[in-house]
Amino acid sequence: MKTTITSSPEEAAAYIRRGELAVFPTETVYGLGADALNPEAVQAIFQAKGRPSDNPLIVHLADRSGLGAVAATISPAAEDLLEAFTPGPLTLVLPRASALSDRVTAGLDTVGVRIPSLPIARAFLRACETPVAAPSANRSGRPSPTTWRAAYEDLVGRVPCILQGGRTDAGIESTVVDVTTETPAVLRPGAVSMEALRDVVPTIREVDEAPEIPRSPGTKHRHYAPEAELVIVEDPGEADAAAIHGYIGIDEPAVPAAFANVFVAPSIEAYGRELFHFLRECDALGCRRIFAQEVPEEGLGRALMDRLRRAA
Ligand code: TXA
Ligand code: MG
Which atom of ligand 1 is nearest the CA belonging to 188? Predict the structure, then answer.
């Protein structure tokens, strides 16, 4: 299959309208989109990614006006969260509407919905004129793509179109919040922090992944993993400085030049933006090990530590 790269949201949207796949940028990571109302198109996502079919997809909308087509009801807490955080990197799990393909929801009676804020993503979604189901645009198990080149690396020859945008801003996926239960629960920490969510819905809780019921099915699969072994360290001094190793963290190692690749982040936000890109860079350099410094579990640090643990 030929993979066309375009910077035109309308050209990429034409693929979706024809029932084909298109990769598109968002403010979090690149997504691999298909018409959420077309079961064959949605099925093609699982094939292109090599994704287990028990893992539901997030439905992306240009704006709130499309919500009625995918969600059955919207609770007051959901309304408050929509008001405060959309468009933006928040996914709400809502009771699903019947028109949606079962393949989108993996047979669940709920649907994850997200309204991205990135202007090119919104232009693309508007031009699609249909809700767009999209997981991150990586081969299953690999780090999520934060550049169109990373998506190309994983999916060239497997998707017909990539909408070219810049490097993604957050670099970490959206926060997934289940608002179908009495007290809303964070199923996946992400680019919207727990603290920010609690400012709007103080009762919101963190789901500690009860092993019997993985509420966000995706969180039980191995994820974000580079080919190199990822080792979490408290202090750069614990990182074994060698020409076949990488290091990413907030503190600078004693001899940065001794590593194949080093990224010292000026902030937690910059660490998050860089992480997946850095993991892919280290793989390209043939690193055997990547040392990643741990950060406090607050603000974006919670999502960052979640991704590091899954990659390790
Ligand atoms: O930032 C993002 O969320 C990116 C961009 C492209 O929007 N998308 C993304 O999709 O990360 P994906 O498929 O890689 O991760 C979606 C997560 C998975 O953990 C999945 O299990 C969960 O959301 N999810 C989706 N629908 C759900 C539902 N109805 N109930 C519970 N969890 C759901
Ligand atoms: Mg993913």
Answer: 19
